[in-house]
Write a structure and sequence with these properties.
The complex is a heterodimer of chains A (about 190) and B (about 900). Chain A is mainly alpha-helical. Helix content of chain A is about 75%, strand content about 0%. In chain A, helix 2 (about 20-40) packs across helix 4, helix 6 packs antiparallel against helix 7 (about 140-150) and helix 7 (about 140-150) crosses helix 9 (about 165-185). Chain B has about 900 residues and is mainly alpha-helical. Classes of the chains: A mainly alpha (about 190), B mainly alpha (about 900).
């Protein structure tokens, strides 16, 4: 998909055209996923992540910024955040299922040392499940977490995307975080 | 939650969050008046908000690992085959033989055609090859390369490939997992035990070299075609650990399919040799019972972990119920298998040797330790459920053990009563087993009752004694003692007293002609009172008991007489601080023993050791030394090696060290250590302590490097044996602190001493005199760094503890007094300092003599003091004495 194509979709989304979200979502998802797989390939043993977060990088790649205002960007990032959540959770789930179902192969201590991501995978799955519960209580709280945590969006961006004040974002974030913490406490170590 | 309106919760919370902190609770109280549930939820959430501050702020941490793994997947796909025919070290990779989460295993051959050597090479996919890691990798690898045992697959080399992936070159083993092997070959029980014995021996070797496997499972325990076992991957997990991830080093990461993980691994606690033995226990269980003790089928991760932590395994014989094997497993093998997989590591086999010993005993038809433990374990479990706890169980068991020792002795001494005594012992034990058994018809009732803890059970027991044993007065007398003992452990002193007195009365009726029996019962009662801290009554019982003995005819041939005397003597000084009286009792015992039980040299040696420790404890070194020497001498004439001998020798070595006679101290300690090594092998507490003692001696000799390595070695060994805090570990670390002070490495000294001080407060009860030791060292440290105010605070604390804890004239009090005086002198509080320094010097001279390192130090402190104060005359007085 051309850069301009995605930008156009985003503009049409803003106008409230129906069905656009469903078109936009898979595009962003694919792009993001591809980036996660290829961009992160280890170049050196000490490799570190590039400073730009993937969600934002996707934005830079897919959107012609000259045609877009800050609110549009926030909407894009919100969708991308959702994609990000989806990608990570899908991956964690797949990974988890592999370990679980892997036919009677014991993955024990040694393997685990090299796969501590599996621990993180489990944590992510737990967070995701709790978020879905939170969504039932107050959808906005869950969205704030999705954007702030999975999408690494700023408070300002989150406020714009949800059309609420920044102080509300801050408070929502606190409440959501507290609630998740309460639900997940004891499940794994929280620093 | 469902019955609480979330919106309401949020509304209150929103408002509360806008209020200043100190007004929030009041606001919530007001809003939730009469709605405790709502209030609970709001408060909990508010707390969680503050507890979770900072959490989830770092999403990249979550993502990074996932990205890494995604990238790995990509890399793996592209590089899967590419390693074939590449060279690693001097080996050429031939084919891939395995694939695990950590990387792949390849079969490789030596690259020169004329060397026919196959190896297995493990290439770690996602290891991080930082400088630090490579260094550690090398260091660990050297240790592992030193593991030479036919049952352990050799590690030849390790390093990092060109692109930075760590690799390990290992012995290539062509075999199958031990469980599969036994199944395929239809091994008999005997064959399985033999194979497993080999496994244990290999593991013992590794443990002796301080290498823990941490990932033992059948896939790592292979049997080759000729039936030899080979354990793979020993120590690899440690090798591969990430050094900068301390949580891993300490605990090992969480497990995914923890079929062989010990509870402490699930809880992410310290891993010790007992952890390996647990995994072996599971393998052992699988071998003999044909299946895993816990049925993990369809269990979630959480359920599995819970099973490991809480579920009690059924006996292996129950697993095979109905088959031929059932009978074979019942009893010893059941007990051994269950002991090996106890939840609490302290109840397991802690060392491979113990496990081996039990298997050997089983094969030779000798009682196995696990059976005895099983009774202990069951009763402990029982008491745990009833909250009164371990102390009670421990007390009972101590008592049973005491009894059995008593009977064993009697059986050896008096053939004619042996039969009766054996019967008594057996019935006592049976009675107890019955009491603790859940099949006891009263058990439910006991458990069900509200306030019923253990009372009804004991009452039931008491009644049974009189009802069922009416015609067996002798057994009755014994059992009353036993139950009386239990009561006293429960703090029911009245009931205890009743039973014990009844028992004593019964004996008085029964044994009119054999008053000695009564004396024995009194001595047991005295022991009880001694334990309860009722020293004067214990004393009078012992005195009465001694009287009976004195009036009996063959008293001097009765070992129990001397035992009572010994107990009396030791009670006097150990519990009552009456050193002089104790001295005369023990001296008399010694004299009589020399005269009458001349053939029982070991009895004499024991009494000599009592006298030696009595004098040693008082700092009377010159009196203590000859007793030690003679005691050692006697032992040496009878035994080349003996655990008691080694202990006496190291006591003596401690005395020599305290006197500053380091060379001789070293000689004795060295010998004692070698003895312990021969008796127990490398992995024992005594060996660790011996190394620590040698370290202190080296410290005294100012051989600082040697001290460093000995003390570190001791700590390392102790930490493997004790997973938790332990006074031995802390004490050794305290010496490391002293070492740092000597090395003038004050920063390190401070940090370790503060740590030790913390530990001492946890391992000793408040006010325990030993807890002053790290305080004194901290005070000394701050003296050296000229932080006098701080120094003074610590020294005053230390001194106070010693004044309250040691006898008045003890040199230990003088020691802190002197250091405190020195500190005050440096603070130019000369008058105050003067008194302390002079008094402590006098006390030290009296207690330790003039020629003594501590007294010498006190003298030089006085000299320093007077020269600073500007008192040349007084200065001269002390200087002249030095010459």
């Amino acid at each position: 998909m051309e850069k301009s194509g995605v930008t156009q979709l985003l503009v049409r989304l803003k106008k409230g055209e129906k069905g656009i979200y469903d078109k936009l979502y898979p595009l962003i998802y694919e792009e993001l996923r591809g980036m996660a797989y290829t961009h992160m390939r280890r170049q050196s043993p000490d490799h570190t992540l590039s400073k730009t977060e993937l969600v934002h990088e996707t934005y830079l790649k897919l959107i012609d910024q000259s045609q877009i205002d800050f609110t549009d960007k926030s909407h894009f990032l919100a969708i991308a955040s959702r994609c990000m959540r989806q990608i990570l959770i899908d991956y964690a789930r797949k990974k988890h299922a592999q370990k679980r179902g892997g036919k009677n192969k014991d993955i024990t201590f040694i393997d685990e040392i090299f796969e501590k991501q599996n621990k993180k995978a489990q944590e992510l799955l737990d967070i995701d499940a709790a978020l879905r519960e939170l969504e039932k209580l107050n959808e906005r709280l869950s969205k704030v977490v999705e954007m702030r945590f999975f999408g690494e969006m700023t408070i300002e961006e989150t406020a714009k995307a949800l059309d609420i004040s920044e102080s509300t974002v801050k408070r929502d974030w606190m409440k959501a975080r507290g609630w998740l913490y309460k639900e997940l406490k004891g499940r794994f170590e929280i620093e | 939650m469902s019955d609480i309106n979330w919106q309401k919760v949020e509304t209150i919370l929103d408002k509360a969050l806008e209020l200043p902190k100190d007004q929030r609770q009041e606001f919530i109280d007001e809003e939730c008046k009469g709605k405790p549930k709502l209030k609970g939820e709001v408060t909990l959430l508010l707390d969680s908000i503050f507890d979770s501050e900072g959490w989830l702020e770092n999403p990249e941490e979550y993502k990074r690992d996932m990205y890494d793994e995604m990238a790995d997947d990509v890399q793996l796909l592209s590089s899967n085959q590419s390693l074939i025919d590449t060279k690693v070290g001097s080996y050429l990779i031939k084919e891939k033989i395995g694939e695990g989460g950590m990387g792949s295993v390849y079969l490789a051959k030596h690259s020169s055609a004329d060397i026919d050597h196959k190896v297995a090479i493990k290439i770690i996919r996602s290891g991080k090859a930082t400088q630090e890691n490579i260094k550690r990798f090398k260091r660990e690898q050297q240790i592992l390369a030193g593991l030479h045992h036919p049952g352990i697959a050799r590690m030849y080399d390790a390093g990092t490939t060109g692109d930075g992936s760590p690799y390990i070159i290992m012995e290539y083993v062509d075999g199958m997992p031990i469980t599969d092997y036994c199944e395929k070959d239809k091994c008999t029980l005997q064959q399985k035990l033999e194979l497993f014995t080999d496994v244990l021996q290999a593991v013992r070797h590794a443990h002796e070299n301080l290498v823990i496997h941490r990932d033992l499972k059948p896939e790592n325990i292979l049997v080759d075609e000729s039936g030899n076992i080979k354990i793979l991957d020993f120590g690899i997990s440690k090798l591969l650990e990430n050094s900068d991830d301390t949580s891993l080093t300490k605990t090992g990461a969480r497990l995914l399919t923890p079929r062989y993980a010990a509870p402490e691994q699930v809880r992410q606690e310290n891993i010790t040799t007992a952890t390996d033995l647990y995994a072996l226990g599971i393998v052992f269980y699988e071998l003999i019972a044909g299946g895993h003790p816990f049925s993990f089928e369809d269990f979630s991760q959480y359920e599995m972990e819970q099973a490991i932590l809480k579920q009690e395994a059924v006996k292996p014989s129950t697993k095979v119920a109905g088959s031929k094997a059932e009978k074979q497993l019942q009893g010893d093998l059941d007990a051994i298998a269950l002991k090996a997989i106890r939840k609490e590591s302290e109840h397991r086999y802690r060392m491979a040797n113990e496990f081996l010993e039990d298997l050997k005993n089983y094969q030779n038809g000798i009682p196995v330790s696990a059976i005895e433990d099983s009774l202990r374990y069951r009763s402990q479990k029982f008491f745990k459920r009833h909250k009164q706890g371990i102390a009670v169980a421990a007390g009972i068991l101590l008592f049973i053990f005491g009894l059995s020792g008593f009977y064993t002795w009697q059986i050896a001494q008096e053939r004619d009563v042996a039969q009766l005594e054996a019967e008594k012992a057996e019935q006592v034990t049976d009675f107890l087993i019955d009491l603790f058994n859940q099949s006891n018809p009263y058990f439910e009732e006991i458990q069900g009752g509200l306030n019923a803890k253990i009372g009804p059970l004991l009452e039931y027991g008491t009644n049974q004694i009189d009802k069922e044993l009416e015609d067996q007065a002798e057994v009755r007398a014994e059992l009353k003692t036993v139950v009386g003992r239990i009561y006293s452990e429960l703090g029911e002193f009245g009931k205890a007293e009743t039973l014990l007195t009844a028992s004593l009365e019964l004996k008085k009726q029964l044994y009119q002609t054999r008053k000695i029996e009564i004396a024995r019962s009194m001595s047991a009662l005295a022991f009880l009172h001694q334990e309860q801290g009722n020293y004067s009554s214990a004393e009078s019982l012992l005195v009465n008991s001694i009287h009976i003995f004195e009036n009996s005819q063959n008293k001097f041939e009765d070992e129990e007489y001397f035992k009572v005397m010994r107990r009396f003597g030791n009670l006097l000084w150990f519990n009552k601080g009456e050193y002089e009286k104790a001295d005369s009792v023990l001296q008399r015992t010694l004299k009589l023993r020399r005269k009458y039980s001349g053939s029982d040299k070991l009895g004499i040696a024991a009494t000599l050791n009592d006298l030696a420790t009595l004098n040693h404890a008082q700092g009377k070194y010159s009196q203590a030394a000859p007793f030690y020497r003679e005691s050692i001498d006697i032992y040496q004439r009878i035994y080349n090696e003996h655990a008691n001998l080694a202990i006496i020798m190291s006591n003596f070595s401690a005395l020599l060290r305290e006197k500053g006679n380091y060379d001789e101290a070293e000689k004795y300690q060295q010998q004692a250590l070698e003895m312990h090594q021969n008796i127990t092998g490398e992995e024992s507490i005594d060996v660790a302590l011996g190394l620590g003692n040698l370290g202190s001696i080296a410290l005294g000799k100012n051989q600082l490097e040697k001290a460093d390595s000995l003390l570190s070695e001791a700590v390392k060994k102790l930490k493997i044996i004790y997973s938790d805090l332990h006074p031995y570990i802390s004490r050794t670390k305290l010496n490391i602190g002293r070492l740092y002070i000597k090395q003038q490495n004050y920063e390190k000294a401070e940090s370790i001493l503060l740590e030790v001080n913390n530990e001492y407060q946890k391992v000793f009860p408040p006010g325990h005199p030993r807890s002053s030791d790290p305080l004194l060292e901290l005070g000394t440290l701050y003296l050296k760094t000229k932080k006098y105010e701080k120094s003074r605070t610590y020294l005053e604390k230390a001194h106070k503890i010693r004044v309250e804890g040691y006898p008045k004239e003890s040199w230990r009090i003088a020691e802190t007094m002197n250091t405190l005086g020195f500190c005050l002198s440096r603070m130019e509080k000369y008058q105050e300092a003067d008194t302390l320094l002079n008094n402590s010097f006098k006390q030290l001279k009296n207690a330790r003599g003039e020629k003594d390192p501590v007294t010498e130090m006190a003298r030089s402190n006085l000299i320093d003091h007077y020269s600073r104060w500007g008192k040349p005359l007084l200065l001269e007085k002390f200087q002249s004495k030095t010459e």
